[in-house]
Amino acid sequence: MSDDNLFELKAVAKRFKKGKETISIFDDLNMTIKRGDFLAIMGPSGSGKTTLLNLLGGVDQPTGGEIVFDGARIDGLSEGDLAKWRANNIGFIFQFYNLMPMLNAAKNVELPLLLTSLSSKQRQQRVDTALQLVGLADRAKHMPSEMSGGQLQRVAIARAVVSDPKLLLCDEPTGDLDRQTADEILEMLQLLNREFGKTIIMVTHDPAAARHATHTLHLDKGQFVGKDEPELQEKSA
Amino acid sequence: MKDLYLVYKNLTRKKLRLFLTSFAIFIAFLIFGAVTALQGALNSGVEMSADNRLVVFNKINFTQSLPYAYVNKVSGIEGVNQVTFANWFGGYYQEPANQVVTMAVDPDSYFEVYSELVVAPEQKANWLQNQAGVMVGERLAKVNNWQIGDRIPVSSNIFSNKNGGQTWDLVVEGIFTASDPQVDTGYMVFHYKYFMETQSWGGDYVGWIVLTTDDPALNEQVANAIDESFANSQAETDTSTEKAFNKAFIEQIGNIGLIIFGVVFMAFFTILVLVGNTMVLAIRERTGEIAVLKTLGFSSPRIFRMILTESCLLAFIGGLLGLGAAYLVVGALSQMMARFLPNLVLGPDIVLQALGYMLLLGLITGIAPAYQALRLNIITAFARG
Question: How far apart (Å, rounded) are the C-alpha atoms in residues B173 and B150?
Answer without folding.
Answer: 8
